[in-house]
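Entry 14. Ran structure prediction on the chain below.
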Amino acid sequence: MKCVSYTRTLPWKNHQGELAIAEQNQRIAAYLAEHKELDLLKKYSDRKNDEKARTAFDQMTDDGVERKFDCIIVASMYSGGTTGNQGNALCDGHRPDRAG
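Output, structure tokens:
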């Protein structure tokens, strides 16, 4: 299955226990190592300090509409979008932070 990963920082929210980009990538890599049926095609990452910054997210969404991949892997549902609803919608499939 063709997949992509998405990572982001949320420095404006000051979340306790927020995962750094490197930690998110490590979790995703560990998950992919356990799921050989997933082929990581591309990594998208938003690293900006503005809450509305979502350049990579928008590109990933556009690529998804064009069916360039089958699923998105995120380390946490909190990094899956700019709102909780976007994160939940993206995380309906494979999630490294959830068993199964």
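Confidence is low (pLDDT under 50) at residues 87-95. Will compare against last week's run tomorrow.
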